[in-house]
Amino acid sequence: TYTEPFLAMKQNDQRNLIEELLGITLLSEKAALLKELVRETKDKHKEEEYKIGGIQQANQQIESSIKDLQRRSDIWDKKHTENIEELKSKLLELAEINIDNELQSHKDLEAYSNQQRKTLQLDANVAQLDTKISKLNQDLTSIKDEACYVCNQPLDDELHKKLLKDKTDKLKGYEKDHTVVTSERNELGELGKQPSVHYDSISNAYDHKTTLDTLSIQLEHKLIETNQYVDQIETLKNKGLQEINWSQINELEELKEHQEFLLKLLTNKDSFIRKKIIEQNLGYLNTRLKYYLQKLGLPHYVTFLSDLSVEITEHGRDLDFDNLSRGERNRLILGLSFSFRDIFESMNTPINLLFIDELIDSGMDISGVESALAELKRITRDRNKNIFLISHKDELVGRVNDILNVIKENGFTTFSCDKEILENG
């Protein structure tokens, strides 16, 4: 017999009920689903961000390695060029000396030195033999004069002969040696010009040749030597660096923005979709409410505003539900119930059964009861509704066609009417 009136509810409960009645909760349900989709999209977007961030971090490390390798490569190239230039410079410096001629000059110098030593030795030997031969000739001259070549005293015959023979034999021997030595000296000939050399010794010349050969080999190796850093850099660039594909995250970003936009359309109070639905249905609700309140004899204007709040006015005065009398509240409760029912049926399906439990009994004067009954009869007649009006007002007995009596005795309830009796115990 009593249900909390709509206008006595808390504002939030009123809003929830009217939103459900007007179909706004369907938007909320879709918004809840859409929120979940937005969350999933954001999670995927975040995962893609982490993935790209990981690739970027890895690429940064690889790029750092590439820069380090490039720096080493540049240093290697510079050093390599310097080494080649240094080797070329040394080779050019060494090439200024014809090492083959130098070696030959050293050989010639050695032969010259040997010849010089022999010549000097032979010249010394010739001079020595000349001295000896000259001395022997002087001795022989003294002996031939029969005087001692040492003391210049007269010699006896035997001694004289012996000395003469010895000196003569020795002179022949010296002259023979002189002839041989002179022949050897003549065979040597003149020394000529001494060969000119760059190095002091032939070993230094051979060192020059060894160094020249070594530097030539080193230069050949340097010229064909390759920069190993280049391959490492190319490998890192081609295989190490990962290409970042932005299409997935761009698609997710676009989808997220689209979903969030749709979510605003469903949830934002200023959304034109919500406004359109509310205005469309509120217009119909206010029209029906105005009609029923006029039929029920309530002089107040009751209107649902676009923010789903309710405005009650009388002769320009703003009132709230508690300012109304019991009978006025009952008229408003009936009018709202009838209007809500019309909205529900218009959006869903007609319902041909209506129970009103003692609602017109409380605080309703005769005029209010008559107005309510008249509207209920109209609804029954025009809209083919089956209405059960539960009331204790005896004056209504003659105003209706069918009466169902509910009789409770001894804990049992019986139902009776003109057509049939049902018992329920």
The major β-sheet equals: 3 strands, antiparallel
Order of helices and strands: HHHHHHHHEEEHEHEEEE
Task: Average the pLDDT over all residues and give the rounded result.
Answer: 83
Oligomer: single chain
Q: Helix tally?
A: 10
Main features:
425 residues; 67% helix; 8 strands; mainly alpha; three-stranded antiparallel beta sheet; rod-shaped; 10 helices
Secondary-structure blueprint of this entry?
Layout: H1 11-22, H2 24-95, H3 99-144, H4 157-188, H5 202-224, H6 228-240, H7 247-267, H8 272-296, E1 301-304, E2 310-314, E3 317-319, H9 326-347, E4 353-357, H10 366-383, E5 386-390, E6 405-409, E7 412-416, E8 421-424
Parallel strand pairs: 4-5
Antiparallel strand pairs: 1-2, 2-3, 6-7, 7-8
In brief, what are we looking at here?
By secondary structure, the chain is mostly helical. The protein has 10 helices and 8 strands. The strands form 3 sheets. A 3-stranded antiparallel β-sheet has the order 1-2-3.
Task: Explain what you see.
With 425 residues, this protein is mainly α. Helix content is 67%, strand content 8%. It contains ten helices and eight strands. The strands form three sheets. A three-stranded antiparallel sheet has the order 1-2-3. A three-stranded antiparallel sheet has the order 6-7-8, with no helix packed on it. A two-stranded parallel sheet has the order 4-5. α8 (272-296) crosses α9. Mean pLDDT is 83; it is low at 419-425.
